[in-house]
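We emphasize that the prediction below concerns an isolated chain of 364 residues; any contacts that depend on oligomerization or on bound cofactors are therefore not represented. The input was used exactly as deposited, without trimming of termini.
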Amino acid sequence: MAGLAAVGATEAEASSGLLALCVASAIVTILLSLRYRQPISVVWSTPGAAVLVAVSTGAVDFASAVGAFMVAGALVALCGLWPALGRAMTRIPTPLASAMLAGILFPICLAPVTAVIEHPFLALPIVLVWLVLFRLAPRWAVPSAMVVAVIAILVAAGPDWMADGGLAPSITLVAPVFDPLVIVSIGLPLFIVTMAGQNVPGFVVMRSFGYEVPARPVFLGTGIASAAGAVFGGQLVNLAAITAAIAASPEAHPDASRRWIAAVSSGSTFLLLGLGAGVATAIVSAAPPILIIAVAGLAVLGALISSITSALAQEPHRVSAIATFLVTASGVTVLGIGSAFWGLLVGAIIMGWLAWRRREPSGR
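Result of the prediction step, given as a token string:
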């Protein structure tokens, strides 16, 4: 919700976008799981939502963002039609991809600090509940923080929190505008982060449980669903990573050939979640924006730690990874293009230069 709002979505458009993401995730999950009898879970792009929050300058027209969403979805589908492109995307150097994701997540993870300073009576209980449960019951830390946030928002907003409209999910069509600068600033980082931060780990997770998920139908299905959902305000859907492990693990079913049922069940549940899009929109709209981003910051803190760890794991590439992180986290906009793109470009140039300098003496 914060990501859609950051790129200019109105309440109705954000509610429609959330509904579109739920429906797209449900349809692709159910169809792929039934077709291949594997627990193929599809969800919306969490790092993609972080990209929307991080790269927006506040001057993006939502129609242009929708155009960028459609282009990103088309690029994902193209990876299915053109296997070489899919392989190229999976070969983005891990240090750079992880550093770019870390740079995107870093400002979001600062939000809890800002929220405590600006709204201490609302934000401090959220952070304290998260901290206590992270020590005692880590699995419940973020959900509990979200519950406390909702309660705090409703208490602060009073009975008028739903006065501006109904709570039923809305469907809003948005005619896309294809602005080249917005496509480069939002569409390309959204595509790259989704491929590197969600799809690639998703395939790795599935292989770890013994499933060889076919890449072509996954890219085609998620790409087409994303492009179609974009006109209703949705961003990207992709192969799940963390939630994929839930349906693919022995806890879902002792028999690995029967775990596809868990994925079909989760896909069906997505349809029910979509019906709550209007409620989610009303709650988010009633809250100070920094408070919602603060909860998101707590939720992605683990992803930030993993990204930084992965970015710095290979000593020869630490300088290029740090450069990517710093440029991305800076939030700079050059020629109308956001920092995620420039961070990846700067990191790639430095990585290539340092690798060439290391090879030069031996080549003489």
